[in-house]
Design goal:
Blueprint lengths: L3 E4 L4 H12 L5 E4 L7 H10 L4
Parallel strand pairs: 1-2
Length: 53
């Protein structure tokens, strides 16, 4: 399974979450969403996975 974090390096909670993942041996795919925003299809996929649609 691949772990992806939509990350904002200026956000303390985002930095803490990224560090928590790494401290637990998980090296996630890091997407800086302010530089590369998710597409409508990606957002729909996330909402579907979270059963929010």
């Amino acid at each position: 399974m691949t772990t992806t974090i939509w990350h904002n390096p200026r956000c303390s909670k985002s930095r803490q979450t990224l560090q928590l993942l790494r401290d637990n041996g998980i090296e996630p795919e890091v997407v800086e969403y302010l530089k590369t925003p998710p597409s409508a299809a990606e957002l729909t996929a996330v909402l579907t996975a979270l059963q929010m649609t």
